[in-house]
Amino acid sequence: MTDTAAANAVDYLLKRHRFRPSEALPWVLAVAAFFVFPDYMALGTQVLIAIIFALSLDLILGYAGIVTLGHAAYFGVGAYAAGMLSAHGGWNEPLTGLVFAGACAAIVGFLSGWVLLRYHGLTLLMLTLAVAILMQEMANAAEIWTGGFDGLTGITIDPILGMFDNDLWGHHYYWYSLAVLALMFYVTRRIVYSPFGQALVGIRENVGRMHAIGSPVHRRLVTVYTISAAMAGVAGGLFAQLNAFVTLDVLDFARSGAVMIMIILGGTGRLYGAFVGATVFTILEDELAKISPEFWEFGVGLVLVLTVMFVQGGLLGLWDKVSSRWIKRSA
Amino acid sequence: MQDPSAMPALQITGLNKNFGALQVARDINLALRPGARHALIGPNGAGKTTFVNLITGALPPTSGSVKLYGEDITGLTQAQRAQRGIARTFQINQLFRGVSVLENVCLSIAERTGDCNALWRPAGTGRAVIDEAVHLLDRVRLTEDALKKVSELPYGRQRLVEIAIALGQDPKVLLLDEPAAGVPSAESHIILDVVDSLAEDIAVLIIEHDMDVVFRFAKEITVLVSGGILTAGTPDEIAADERVREVYLGGSHHG
């Protein structure tokens, strides 16, 4: 009896990181969406970028428990970096542009994270907010470089791999964004299932005990924060390349808030919460804006309130509850 | 060179801690030899947990030094001291409640071995860590609960996880802060059996209120009162000491 329990336990850990068949679902849906809704690919690309951004937040919020209201800082740095590389640097190749966007955001993430991750709770929350506001003010002030309030123009992006330009229907950028998302997802998934990822969960669950067992907590947090910032920067870079235009709202508090809502809506600390949350949020935003351009935020707010009040763990948490009840009944 | 077997595992010299005018540790001297079974007793508010916090580095001392096998660790952080082999359990559970018992222990082991620095390799490929964790759970009789979330366990079994995490650190010095606190006496014997079966080379300091446990377990006892050491000695000496009796039974230091 004890031996089987031990064997089961070992078996669980040995197999936990393996891909499950159900994990193919979001990718099948993303490909299917291309063929079913070919006219909605512009929206589809927005959804994919939002998922990358939300995924980057899930890594720090859902896994390491870092609550931030300023994650747009890194999205914005990535967007401006990719934009300025083309507008001022004359470098128009998109893939290296994304790498550059990610690298710039990583540097800002590392430096800001080094300082602010020494704090926690409300202080940390305010500092993350302050970093984003600071970045936005800097972007506004550095008008020569960023275009300030009028936005950054003059971005021209070469065709992807020299072949696929940003076509009128957004088809090429949909596949481009999906490929970037797949890569970002793979990286996130590796990290989450690694021993380092387990340490992040430990920090989320009980940071005091982590200190007591000898974990270099600050180093772990700065590491994951930098990776997360890089991913957010890639999302921002993609956004800039897609629109060939960057305005100050890439750094806006509303964007930090929106990505937070997405991940809470979908479910934190579960990888696929970002997929569900970002998709539902972006489509809902789009549909509600069509119905009522002035009051769409009310609808989004209502959905969030209902989710937080009645469903712990977001929409995926709800799905877990419903499906486990169904399995119990059929068993 | 000193003979390493004669060198104390833990040597605390002239340790003081003040919070403003409040003196919570007063000139504490204490040495644990390798394999020590040492009990720290004293009335509530005597500063026992504070003393543990000073040893682990959770609190910085105002003055004095802490040495681990001759190495001065007074200036090190809590995490650095833990990496060098000082482990503790908490009077109030400090666990990773949302994950399984097995993962709680794996985490402690993997932080010790440095596995947690790996961010690209699946945790499931760290077979040595997993095997050690399973072995450890067997020792503390938690195998049946290995895959249960800690938050789903009854309190008494959570206390065992508390000890298992500390043992995962493979400690040289283990500080047990009331390991059986809050556990019904019908179940506390499981915890005390685990404490009794600790490896002989670990130096153990146990804070305990239950005198039966203290006299069963400890070879030496130190009595702490108002932040300072009242007396120290063998269980027989302490049992015979009038001042100790007064502290426990007399007027001024109730409950």
What do these coordinates show?
The complex is a heterodimer of chains A (331) and B (255). Chain A has 331 residues and is mainly α. Chain A contains 15 helices and no strands. Chain A has one domain: ABC transporter involved in vitamin B12 uptake, BtuC (Orthogonal Bundle), CATH 1.10.3470. In chain A, 74% of the residues lie in helices and 0% in strands. Chain A is globular and about 70 Å long. Chain A starts with a helix and ends with a helix. Chain B has a domain at 10-100 and 169-249: P-loop containing nucleotide triphosphate hydrolases (Rossmann fold, 3-Layer(aba) Sandwich), CATH 3.40.50.300. In chain B, the strands form 2 sheets. In chain B, strands 6-7-8-3-9-10 form a 6-stranded mixed beta sheet, with helices on both faces. The longest helix of chain B is centred in the middle third of the chain and has 14 residues, at 155-168.
Search tags:
heterodimer, A: 331 residues, mainly alpha, ABC transporter involved in vitamin B12 uptake, BtuC, 15 helices, B: 255 residues, alpha/beta, Rossmann fold, six-stranded mixed β-sheet, four-stranded antiparallel β-sheet, 23% strand
Strand content of chain B: 15-25%
Our Rg estimate of chain B from Cα atoms comes to 19 Å
The CATH topology of one domain in chain B, please?
Rossmann fold
> How far apart, in Å, are the first and last alpha carbons of chain B?
47 Å
Question: Would you identify the regions of chain A where 5 or more consecutive residues have pLDDT less than 50?
Answer: none
> Major beta sheet of chain A, specifics?
none
